[in-house]
């Protein structure tokens, strides 16, 4: 048993969760991990290609699956993973769970931090695996699947550690009853809910899955991880590290299992509906997410689709604003759940420090900033990354057919490193506020809509309505007027949508920082859960108290 | 504004919630409230009879409803309450909510404690109102609807106060980026979920409703209270006190509304399904409870029916045990959700300090202890109270038809004070472990089943199965063997059922103490919520964070 090797890390993370200042356990810059790490990570990644993946400690499979294709090379990775039946997965999880449930949370947390340290050694491998399954740039792949995901995992561990220590394991209860005192010895246990299932997505296979995995584990539940069949390798590497650390510490590695499946024979529904699966974390499209939320007798945590707004009212420096927004739009080709989509701009334009800027001029500046970024040979390809799949590519290429006026037509982007990369630059459409049917849907990928409104009050009303009816994970707003700012905050917050005001420079609305920003609020249709508030933790276990009369 | 008049009370309650020692803000003994209080409470209660109830500050009603009948006198109380349409109630709640949502939680908590102090002045009136609607004895009416309910309300206020202070309202986030530091000003708000609805039951109209009412209010949500039409007066008195204190402090009394309805024209379903009602607390039968839990887009807290077990393995003093159990069975004629129903006894009997006691002898002792209590002229009527309604009475009178062997036939009990009281002493039936169809249902009221099992392991298996499949709120177990004790705890806790071991003397399995015992765990079919764990609080609001770039 590791005892309290990582107590200091846990204590600091608990404190950071409360304070919500900037905090990070895992530095986000690749250079922090040594000179040689990148090259050796690349070599390790390449050695995984065209091989059966053999690092898992899951036993008993005779079948293998694998269908990953790099969005950069369009080649099959050729990696296969062991596959299991739902009954095998559930039985193994159930058997592994008992010892874990009876392990004190301090020990569980310590072992889980040790798994993160083991994952740290794989950051570069995981980065290349993420790049060649999701289409993210190398830098985003490294940060999102590496240090940022580990930080969010640590955040969940710390929240669990704190919540499970909330009540004493034993307490003497002494009630004065006149001349006598009634005495009971009480015990309080946080009993894990059951077996967890974490369903991953194809664009953020690690970042979106780690909070649920670690929240399940720290609260004592075994977890089965069902990745998207096109993005298995990044999370398979993480799970292999978790399994190894569990095994080394005398625990059953089946506490955290990979449930790889195929597009032809998916396991997801059967897993969701298995009576012993009581906790489900889901990231993905809204229609399957709504199905998961509708399951009776399950505790469900979802992140689904949303329609994110930008409200433009008034700015100090319009160049800084449009450059910031252009980057937010181009980053990973709009395939982030936090990417802005609907830009609400008043028909009379916006106020700037240099005077009023008309609607057409504002739209033109946004369009030009995006075009400039896309066409910047040092920035374009690296910011856009690749498009994860052909469906998204097709939708982006056909965006002009949605309606409205095409201000910028997306198309191929040259990529010096990967000539076959699946790419499409953003399409910018101008629509009117009457075009609800166009802008009330999530247009996942590189498509944005500039919506002409009557005025800022109208913009706020529409942004609020979109968030309330269709969900929103972010809202960017630009205003120099404190009254307007207060109004935007009140209206968007009332539909449980956070607002990022006046972002310029090296910070973008797409980014949510561990230990400080709640990712998704859980209050609107974009999802019912939040990384990582108390609800994300406390719904995974049940407080049960026993009592005994103290004999004299 | 009261500022921090009750800060000390709140701080002590927060501490008590953590420690889970004995703690009480409101003494449970009537004598603690002064010599004159009982008589003046009786007078006030009598003045309410046969009158329109006029203490509410709700406006705009032209209709009145009222159909309460005393289980002691079988006479109609003759009290009518103003009635409102669902749209009126929801509109008033929505209008009242805005100011409350923007009031700091410290002020909300302070005002809410002040309402409890006001309720304290009505304890005796509420006691008589409870007695003559529920059929509880005077002492239970006083304690359950008075100090015990107030303590549970304070527990919820304190949990909300702590949770809403968990994160800072403002924080500066400073991220080092090489030569520059990125600075964001962040704000964190706990945004209330919407409008709450609390649906009461006819047996514990105050105790079971106050936690939901106060949890909604402390987290910033207005609340509509829909009592059982046969038990309105006790909670109407509480609501009148809440409304008066809100009004005196400049808040809209419609933050907490009474939604009285009639058996002929119930409002419950229409309230539940109104889109602006987003939080529902429900106490009552399982079939309506299952419906409430199935509603999409609502956050629901339920306490439904359960089948509570007693596991008899071995005892030190059999007389002390059967006396304790007899009292637990007779208390309020088995109409407590915590009352024991199924007594699992091994066919070879139980071990006692005086040697083995056979099954028949054990059964006989339980039967005799109940008969002795019922027939004790100083104890019987007062312990049993009255039966709340005719359906329960009929079921109790017909219990022998359920099957099995009748060890004790329930029937009328003389009541010196109320000659017409609706009463029925407990029926004791002996059944076999094969009689699932008899013992797997909740038999609400004065009926218990002695189930003959193969051995204690079999008893545990059946008790566990009942809790898992049909729900359980309590389990009483008697064993002198530490290994058996551990086994019972593990098995019952695994189905989220707390165990009370070896209760004798002045403590009964039916009792759950505020600040220490979680009432219902929320983990089995008896209910999905718990008084008062964190989940009971944190699901009522949403953390939303805004960010702004700090300008130089």
TrEMBL record, chains A, B:
Entry-linked Gene3D superfamilies: Aldehyde Dehydrogenase, Chain A, domain 1 (3.40.605.10), Aldehyde Dehydrogenase, Chain A, domain 2 (3.40.309.10)
Sequence ranges assigned to domain Aldehyde dehydrogenase in this UniProt record: 85-514
Q: Which domain of life is it from?
A: Bacteria
This protein's UniProt keywords: NAD, Oxidoreductase
| Molecular function (Gene Ontology), one example | L-glutamate gamma-semialdehyde dehydrogenase activity
Name the Pfam families for this protein: Aldedh
- Record carries keyword Translocase: no
* InterPro entries listed in its UniProt record: Ald_DH/histidinol_DH (IPR016161), Ald_DH_C (IPR016163), Ald_DH_N (IPR016162), Aldehyde_DH_dom (IPR015590), PaaN_2 (IPR011975), Proline_metab_enzyme (IPR050485)
Gene Ontology biological process terms in this record = L-proline catabolic process to L-glutamate
Question: Which GO CC annotations does the UniProt entry carry?
Answer: cytoplasmic side of plasma membrane
- Please tell me whether the keyword Oxidoreductase is annotated for this protein: yes
Q: What is this protein called?
A: Phenylacetic acid degradation protein paaN
The species this protein was found in: Chitinophaga japonensis (Flexibacter japonensis)
């Amino acid at each position: 048993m590791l005892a309290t090797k990582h107590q200091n890390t846990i204590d600091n993370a608990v404190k950071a969760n409360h304070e919500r200042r900037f905090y990070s356990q895992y530095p986000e810059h690749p250079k922090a991990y040594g000179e040689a790490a990148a090259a050796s990570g690349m070599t390790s990644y390449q050695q995984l290609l065209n091989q059966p993946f053999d690092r898992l400690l899951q036993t008993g499979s005779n079948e293998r699956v694998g269908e990953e294709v790099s969005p950069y090379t369009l080649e099959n990775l050729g990696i296969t993973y062991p596959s299991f039946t739902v009954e095998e997965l559930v039985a193994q999880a159930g058997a592994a769970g008992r010892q874990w449930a009876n392990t004190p949370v301090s020990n569980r947390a310590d072992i889980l931090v040790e798994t993160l340290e083991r994952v740290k050694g794989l950051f570069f491998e995981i980065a290349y695996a993420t790049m060649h399954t999701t289409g993210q740039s190398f830098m985003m792949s490294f940060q999102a699947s590496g240090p940022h995901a580990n930080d969010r995992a640590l955040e969940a561990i710390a929240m669990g550690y704190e919540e499970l220590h909330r009540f004493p394991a034993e307490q003497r209860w002494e009630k004065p009853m006149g001349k006598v005192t009634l005495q009971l010895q009480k015990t309080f246990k946080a009993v894990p809910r059951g077996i967890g299932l974490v369903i991953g997505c194809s664009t953020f296979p690690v970042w979106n899955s780690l909070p649920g995995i670690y929240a399940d584990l720290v609260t004592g539940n075994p977890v089965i991880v069902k990745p998207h069949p096109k993005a298995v390798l990044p999370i398979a590497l993480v799970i292999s590290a978790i399994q190894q650390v569990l095994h080394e510490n005398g625990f059953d590695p089946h506490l955290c299992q990979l449930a790889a499946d195929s597009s032809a024979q998916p396991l997801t529904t059967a897993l969701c509906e298995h009576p012993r699966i009581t906790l489900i974390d889901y990231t993905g499209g809204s229609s399957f997410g709504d199905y998961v939320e509708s399951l009776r007798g399950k505790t469900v945590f979802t992140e689904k689709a949303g329609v994110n707004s930008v409200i433009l009212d008034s700015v100090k420096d319009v160049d800084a604003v449009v450059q910031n927004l252009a980057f937010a739009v181009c980053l990973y080709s709009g395939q982030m759940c936090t990417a802005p989509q609907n830009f609400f701009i008043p028909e009379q334009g916006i106020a700037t420090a240099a005077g009023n800027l008309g609607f057409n001029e504002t739209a033109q500046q946004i369009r030009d900033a995006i075009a400039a970024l896309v066409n910047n040979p040092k920035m374009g390809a690296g910011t856009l990354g690749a498009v994860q799949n052909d469906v998204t590519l097709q939708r982006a290429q056909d965006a002009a057919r949605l309606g409205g006026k095409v201000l910028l037509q997306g198309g191929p982007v040259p990529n010096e490193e990967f000539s076959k990369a699946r790419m499409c630059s953003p399409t910018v459409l101008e629509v009117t506020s009457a075009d609800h049917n166009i802008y009330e849907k999530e247009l996942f990928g590189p498509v944005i809509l500039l919506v002409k409104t009557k005025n800022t009050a109208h913009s706020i009303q529409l942004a609020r309505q979109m968030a309330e009816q269709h969900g929103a994970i972010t809202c960017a707003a630009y205003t120099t007027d404190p009254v307007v700012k207060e109004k935007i905050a009140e209206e968007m917050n009332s539909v449980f949508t956070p607002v990022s005001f006046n972002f310029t420079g090296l910070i973008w609305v797409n980014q949510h920082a561990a230990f400080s920003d709640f990712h998704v609020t859980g209050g609107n249709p974009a999802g019912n859960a939040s990384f990582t508030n108390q609800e994300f933790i406390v719904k995974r276990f049940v407080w049960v108290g026993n009592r005994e009369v103290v004999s004299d």
